[in-house]
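Quick check before the chapter quiz. The format below is the same one you will see on the exam, so make sure you can read both the input and the output lines.
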Amino acid sequence: MPKLLAKGLSANEYDAALNLTSKTEEDVELGSTTARLSSTMGITATNSVNITFENISFSIEVGTKKEPKTKEVLKNLSGELKSGTMTAIMGPTGSGKTSLLNVLAYRMPVNKKATLTGSLLLNGHAIDSPLWLRKFRYQKRKEVNLFLRVISELGLNKVADTMLGSARVRGVSGGEKKRANIGIELIKNPSMLFLDEPTSGLDSFQAQSVMTCIGGLAKNGRTVVASIHQPRSSIFALFDQLYLISEGRTMFAGQAVQAVKYFAELDKRFECPSLFNPADWFLDITSADYRSDDKEVDSLNRIKILGDHWETKLQSQILPSGKLSPSVVSLNVDEEEIPTYQSSVPKQIQLIMWRSGAAVFRDKSTVLSKIIPSLFFALVIGGIYSDVSKDQKGIQDLIGALFFFTINQTFGNMFAVLQTFSEEKVVVERERASKSYRLSSFYLGKVSAELPLNLISPAVFGCAVYWMVGLNSKPERFFYFIIILLEIGFAAVGLGMFVASVAPNEQAATASAPVIVVLMILFGGFYINVESLPDAVSWIQYLSIMRWGFMGFVVNEFQGETFSCHGVDVDAGEACVKTGEEQISRLSFKGETVGGAIFGLFCMIVGFNVLAYIVLRLNKRKYAKIEAV
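Here is the expected output.
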């Protein structure tokens, strides 16, 4: 991060750069800070935001067509989340904590079988679009020093130049990764923070540090809402407000320090024992016990009593004065009032290129995994096919070697993309949902950043294998060979991007990719003559990278060449191919040109990348609107 300041970026540019440097699997809105982040830091929210929600209900169809069933996840939840406070959403597993958090953050995924109703207001204004949350979330800043102060106050100075890490690359610790995530959100100076299980996977000390920091953010005027499962007692003491739910119903909502007293006054059975963690006790009395029929009935009755009591007697205490309007009002403002992206398209491309390039070239294993296999196969193939003779056996050798080149470049480049982009796609979808950048900016920036590496690998392979095999020695033929080899690699990368975009995960992508490549091999013109293909499927050959690459190699190598008939008994009727044109004709490539092959591969490159882009755009995360009741 400090290295970026040395480049002289502006505050807005640095903002975008910091936003684009997060590639962790954690949600961007998950995170933490350290205890020092409070009054000393002075990074206060520009706008104070009070969130009010009323009668929030969420249900989903889970049955079959013959036996339709509806599961109520949230049942008429109401409450108010005030600025300058940290509200903890607590409850047993499956109680609806994350669902409620998603609703409040306007991040509930669209589901045709789901129904979401209720009212959600910010500072008294009903909202009908997630853009309104952005109006309050992100504010403009003018302090470049803010970025260094965030790093310092989050306690990240010693790891400022350390990679966050991934499943394959070791990076910062879990607590540091969460603090880095919250720091990225802080750079935007948000008025609201929504955190889902911010202490998950951390030890007790790190969890305490994380929640203390989040409490400091709330004290600076932000509205902080965090779902948390089972906090230690010292963490529970940090909460200003508690929203306790079970089976989708409200058990308690109000000041956290009043929760113990509330349950004790309700019934002696619900009184928290002395020297007992209140958070543990609340989970004990609000959890359903399914170990036996009797325990299930008793626990569900207890939860019903708690829910009914809250709804009938105390729910009104957390609502603002006056009845909320049941209808959602669409407020009209100028587009300039609602921020879209943090930087211009050229700057987005520049920063994505910086991030993608840094991720690729500082990971030595990625670079070596591209170059070493290319060099290895070049030496192996060069050794096997070294000094191919210009006779009939040499023709067979050349045809085999040329087709292998297409297979090697397709497999190597395609599967490298499947492994990396399948992971990166998750981050891209999340960052697009946060309006970090345009998809077009990401795609152009990523392709541009990885261009050098995608050029180096085929070039190393081609330069080594061409002369070892003894292919056509004319300079222009070598030039065209390298061009075709590069285009095969780029087309394979585009195909990999497309497959990874369509597949839901890396496992599905790597399972489906071989099927596609095998089909391309079958229609490549080597195992079956393209003129022998059935009319119904003959068109598939034009979608095969192998077909265009193999055709280009063959025409480039054989055109204008002559071969001896040594060892062939022509008088006995044995066939002898004397010219390269004759061999080209035998493969049904008569009339084809190197330029046509180059153009065909170019179309494949453009086509696969356009398809990948379209799929990514169509797969954009969509969030459900809250229907008024």
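If your answer matched, good. Strands lie at 51-61, 70-81, 85-90, 114-122, 125-126, 192-196, 223-227, 241-246, 249-255.
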